[in-house]
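Morning run. Coffee first, then this:
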Amino acid sequence: MPARRKRKTRQAPEGEEEETELAQYEHGEAAADAVAEDLQAGIREMVLYALDPEIANRVSWSTANFPTLASLASLAGDDLFSRLPIDRRRELLEDQSQQTPVERGDGLTPAVRVKHAAGRLASVAQLSAIFEECVGPAELEASTRTNYYASWRLVVTWGIAHECVAGVLPMTKDTLKALTLELLMAGCASGTIGNVWSSIEERHRRFGHPLPLGEAGAFRRLYKAVSAVKGAPSRVIFPIGSHHMKRMMGLLGLSSAQERDKLMCCTGTALNCRVGEVPFFRICDFLWDHDAPYHEKYLGTAAVRIYRRKQDTGRKGHLPRLGRASNVEWDLVLRCGDMRSSTTWRLAQSASKASIRGLGVDTVHRSFSRSPQEHVDRLRNGNQSRGRW
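And here it is:
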């Protein structure tokens, strides 16, 4: 069966306009920023208009990109919420980010005395309600509950602005799509939208309401639709290209320390390393011809041991590979090998791993030290402390 060909998508030029029966679309950062500013101002204006004047004068806003009330505690007395049933009002405004009595007990269950108990024992309904109050919220970490509550405040703010407070809990799928569109219009990235959806589902699940994306795979499919929005253009998210690497590898007239730093920087970029991983590079972490026993085409390649890297398939695991380049000038493996052979490093007698003996290099100091002078002083003074692996 022939492989499916990927459909090519055309990137819209800056300022290009598209028009449909429902809306007019204009591609460009300036136009998107203008729409986002108008939407943010409109949300704030409608929230203040919908609330009672006494409450509206006391509200404060969070620093989120989307207009969000900093607190929901003062909204209980507003007409929008006082008309709702007491249980629904509590579900909308309850702050679950605080520690529960059980969590504050530091491992010990506090003394629980049930109010208005009939006789010596409380009823099953009373015990269940107390459990939901003091134990149930702890199924999520306190930090997770804090993040969910921040996103839920955004949802309630949006419901006030659109005069559909009763429609955010329980929420229908159409209401969720409407909220998502305005989040996109305000410039929110897909990660922010996913957090808002998660807070909505947690609130629905907490109080026993049907989920707006309850059918199998609905969350994943809809999230894939909005994942194209990353919060920034691709040229900003991935500013480093192969042409930058080639220009760095082509620099001439560098000192030995500058050459070492250049190679370590290019190696960390090629291996998609985190910033904190590059300073721990050592020459002994380069496993030359690591895959050569499997096939001769891997001769001249290298694997690199990354300090404390977890099994992260997106970053190629513990031992990411460096292949050979088509041009000798850009060949990282060859240049790093030349740097190894051009030094006078000797194997340390205090090498912490017998399996790396025979490399002919010092196994403890970092190849990418904080400063060239620190690197020289370590070699001169013989400070051969055990390295971290």
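The CA atoms of residues 286 and 304 lie 5 Å apart. Good start to the day.
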